[in-house]
Design a protein that fits this description.
Number of strands: 4
Order of helices and strands: HHHEEHEHEHHHHHH
CATH architecture: 3-Layer(aba) Sandwich
CATH topology: Rossmann fold
CATH superfamily: Vaccinia Virus protein VP39
Strand content: 5-15%
Shape: elongated
Helix content: 25-40%
Strand order of the largest sheet: 2-1-3-4
Radius of gyration: 18 Å
CATH class: Alpha Beta
Oligomer: single chain
Number of helices: 11
Distance between the termini: 28 Å
Number of domains: 1
Largest sheet: 4 strands, parallel
């Protein structure tokens, strides 16, 4: 499957995003360690401001007016209206940069990452998914068409590394059972969450499904929950402290 334009229309569909996609403290600890001692940090594709350390100087870049408004409502620093591919900063402006679950939205990944590298003196922290490992959660059983969308959108890890200069450390991040950042895998032990439309609206992949397919996938899961089929196969996840 190929998606010509991976950008999600947050101005049209992202109005409730901040209520479901929040900074999870467990994941934030990984991000803070990766940022090290950096004091000036650029957040690219910053959205509503999740994972921005409160004790550093943050400059945020976000092209969606709806997402920029949600930052203000959350008390985050206002974001600059710009895109990764054309950052309005001089070379080596920032100690570090971060990009949290955003690179799959960039129309030109390589150009965007080269720009981030250009304006950053030190480390660049990118949180993303490995498209080769998207079958490790149960959602591939009930939402295979959705996973096909995700697999087509997420860039390969080595592609990201090459665009940033050819090296970098890959650190797997575990997900806690009560994760408050509402991406798909955050609900590995709470499958009923997918029955709520607002939860799905905060997960951009659903917006790329063919008309009618979203309802079909939700009904598929709903029937499995009602029959007990999901719990017989995956019920152990309900008590798994992390995944």
């Amino acid at each position: 499957m190929q998606i010509d334009n991976p950008a999600f229309d947050y101005d049209r569909l992202g109005h409730s995003y901040a209520g479901y996609r929040q900074t999870d403290p467990h994941i934030a600890a990984f991000v803070n360690r990766a940022l090290g001692g950096a004091q000036t940090i650029l957040n690219v594709g910053a959205g509503a401001g999740s994972y921005e350390p409160s004790d550093r100087y943050i400059v945020a870049v976000e092209p969606s007016s709806v997402m920029r408004a949600q930052r203000i409502a959350k008390g985050k620093v206002p974001a600059i209206n710009a895109k990764a591919e054309l950052l309005p900063f001089d070379d080596n402006t920032f100690d570090a940069a971060m990009a949290m679950l955003t690179v799959h939205h960039w129309p030109n990944l390589e150009k965007g990452l080269r720009e981030v590298r250009r304006v950053t003196r030190g480390q660049i922290v990118i949180m993303t998914y490995d498209p080769a490992a998207l079958d490790v959660f149960w959602n591939v059983r009930y939402f295979p068409e959705l996973i096909d969308v995700e697999r087509a959108r997420y860039p390969a890890i080595d592609r990201i590394q090459q665009a940033l200069g050819g090296s970098g450390e890959v650190v797997p991040v575990s997900i806690p059972l009560q994760c408050v950042d509402g991406f798909q895998e955050a609900f590995y032990g709470r499958p009923e969450a997918f029955l709520h439309r607002e939860v799905r609206k905060a997960q951009s992949a659903w917006g790329f499904l063919a008309p009618g397919l979203e309802d079909e996938l939700v009904e598929r899961l709903s029937e499995a929950l009602l029959s007990g089929a999901w719990d017989r196969e995956f019920g152990h996840y309900r008590k798994a402290p992390s995944k």
